[in-house]
């Protein structure tokens, strides 16, 4: 079975919000839209977004690190929002595992949003239905688009390629490979919701340099004056030519 | 969670309606066992269950205000296999229909025994319909409460005490209303219903108190470390992705300070439990006809506050992502 998902690399996300705006742009005019705003240019603005980028500070000054954290529906493999829906408007697609809302069936009771521990669903107060990330279902399933463009808008927009899209059940896919080899993890795994979207942790590349690599114990000029652990006798370096 | 008035009125009004119907049916069964004097079918059972129906209809009416698309509410009966909300949507009209039938049969006086069990127990239509309606009433208590108790992410709700509270508070307020209704119509059952109302009120005090104590001791199952997957002791949110509000900041928080919460807690503990018990006890002593009505009014007010607090005290894990605006 296919399970499409995003793998978000927190190591390279710079928090530019390009995924947020491209998501809003594509989905405002696409199948899943509109995504109405209330008072967008006024006091107390509010609006529907499928994707948000949050920022966290890790540690205390001066030992701090900034983490930009894109947050959208995780398309759980055991989605808790689906069985609670009284009308069947919330469903998980059998063929690709994307969790969707049928806006024509949704009665706007908001029960699914209570049943999502990630706060991934947002109620559209203008159209009075629940909305959420669709992984750009109208785009990824559109066979008239070239293969390279059959990806969610956020993935195509990301300037640092922090978002990897693919089938996490296919071990050879780029997404599955990233999860396997780069330490992909799930959010709030305690609930057993099995989120399909994974995150790649912040990771640093460090070179391991040992002390004897910095200070050459067998320096022919003996500048460091470090005694060798075992007397070596004359070496070829000691021979004056 | 944000306490929505539509849901507060829905759950409290149908609870009263269910409790009142169960009180009336209890009265009928007691009469059958010749433990109580028989009452007038039309004036007491007929109009009494009509009052219960009014409360249920009021709750149903309130529920529509919770929906974005009330005109599609019929669709909510579709997923009864998995959704407690869907089950409630089925059981509530079913129960209302049975109560309406019960009221009708009593009102037009179709209470001639159909057959007699063991020569002593005359069974009529109202007894059979009433039994079915009583089963539906308990089913509805379970459905309503499980909508909340079934949300495993809200630890304050995810417990059998939630079901016990909905059931006992509904029974307490319903029997209290039955007592008030008896006083109003001048029927000599004020003491009978009042005694049961006090018993249910005290039982509800025990379970609601236990729930309050449990919730005070709860430790959140999820912390920010698990929410964003970073292992560090000191983490702070610096931005949540927007500067204004959003659905996530409105739906999952009550928006009041801790002082308001404390005030509401003490108010409902007072209005819901000791005051109605005192009033109904006093009415028994001085044989007052208006105090049972006051007891019900006070208890219903307390019930509204209790339901508000029930939502306000619920902590949703999604709030971990919405700690700081910017």
TrEMBL record, chain A:
CDD domains: PsrB
Keyword Transcription: no
Keywords from the named record: 4Fe-4S, Iron, Iron-sulfur, Metal-binding
Species whose genome carries this gene: Sedimenticola thiotaurini
Record carries keyword 4Fe-4S: yes
Name under which the protein is recorded: 4Fe-4S dicluster domain-containing protein
Region (Disordered): 218-241
Domain (4Fe-4S ferredoxin-type): residue spans on this chain: 4-34, 64-95, 97-126
UniProtKB/TrEMBL annotation, chain B:
Keyword Membrane attributed: yes
GO molecular function terms attached to this record: dimethyl sulfoxide reductase activity
Coiled-coil residues: none
Segments passing through the bilayer: 43-68, 89-108, 128-151, 163-184, 190-211, 266-286, 292-310
Keywords: Membrane, Transmembrane, Transmembrane helix
Cited PANTHER family: ANAEROBIC DIMETHYL SULFOXIDE REDUCTASE CHAIN YNFH
Protein name: DMSO reductase
């Amino acid at each position: 079975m296919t399970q499409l998902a995003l793998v978000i690399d927190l190591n390279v996300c710079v928090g530019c919000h390009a995924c947020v705006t491209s998501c809003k742009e594509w989905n405002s005019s696409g199948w899943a839209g509109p995504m109405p705003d209330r008072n967008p240019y006024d006091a107390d603005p509010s609006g529907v977004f499928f994707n948000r980028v949050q920022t966290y500070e890790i540690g205390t000054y001066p030992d701090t690190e900034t983490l930009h954290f894109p947050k959208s529906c995780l398309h759980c493999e055991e989605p808790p929002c689906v069985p609670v829906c009284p009308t069947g408007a919330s469903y998980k697609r059998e063929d690709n595992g994307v969790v969707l809302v049928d806006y024509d069936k949704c009665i706007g009771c908001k029960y699914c949003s209570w049943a999502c521990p990630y706060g991934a669903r947002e109620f559209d107060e203008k159209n009075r239905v629940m909305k959420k990330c669709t992984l750009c279902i109208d785009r990824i399933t559109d066979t008239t688009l070239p293969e390279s463009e059959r990806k969610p808008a956020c993935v195509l927009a990301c300037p640092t390629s922090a978002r990897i899209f693919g089938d996490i059940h296919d071990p050879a896919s780029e997404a599955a490979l990233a999860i396997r080899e780069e330490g992909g993890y799930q959010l709030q795994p305690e609930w057993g919701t099995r989120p399909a979207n994974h995150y790649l942790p912040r990771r640093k590349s460090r070179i391991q340099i040992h002390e004897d690599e910095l200070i050459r114990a067998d320096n022919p000029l003996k500048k460091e004056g470090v005694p060798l652990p075992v007397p070596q006798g004359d070496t070829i370096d000691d021979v004056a030519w | 969670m944000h306490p929505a008035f539509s849901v507060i009125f829905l759950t409290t009004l149908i609870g009263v309606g269910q409790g009142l119907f169960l009180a009336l049916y209890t009265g009928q069964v007691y009469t059958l066992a010749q433990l109580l004097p028989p009452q007038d079918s039309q004036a007491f059972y007929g109009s009494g269950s009509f009052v219960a129906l009014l409360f249920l209809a009021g709750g149903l009416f309130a529920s529509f205000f919770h929906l974005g698309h009330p005109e599609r509410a019929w669709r909510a009966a579709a997923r009864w296999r998995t959704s407690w909300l869907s089950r409630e949507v089925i059981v509530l009209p079913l129960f209302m229909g049975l109560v309406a039938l019960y009221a009708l049969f009593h009102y037009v006086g179709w209470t001639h025994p159909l057959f007699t069990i063991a020569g002593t127990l005359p069974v009529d239509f109202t007894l059979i319909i009433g039994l079915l309606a009583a089963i539906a009433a308990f089913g509805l208590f379970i459905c309503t409460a499980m909508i909340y108790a079934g949300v495993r992410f809200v630890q304050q709700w995810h417990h059998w005490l939630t079901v016990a509270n909905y059931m006992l508070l509904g029974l307490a307020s319903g029997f209290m209303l039955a007592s008030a209704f008896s006083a109003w119509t001048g029927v000599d059952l004020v003491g009978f219903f009042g005694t049961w109302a006090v018993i249910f009120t005290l039982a509800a005090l025990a379970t609601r108190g236990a729930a309050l104590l449990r919730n005070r001791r709860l430790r959140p199952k999820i912390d920010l470390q698990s929410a964003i997957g970073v292992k560090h002791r000191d983490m702070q949110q610096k931005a949540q992705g927007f500067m204004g509000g959003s659905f996530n900041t409105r739906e999952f928080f009550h928006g009041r300070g801790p002082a308001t919460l404390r005030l509401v807690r003490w108010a409902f503990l007072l209005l819901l439990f000791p005051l109605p018990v005192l009033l109904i006890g006093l009415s028994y002593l001085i044989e007052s006809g208006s105090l049972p009505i006051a007891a019900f009014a006070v208890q219903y007010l307390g019930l509204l506050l209790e339901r508000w607090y029930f939502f306000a005290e619920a902590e949703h894990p999604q709030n971990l992502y919405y700690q700081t605006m910017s």
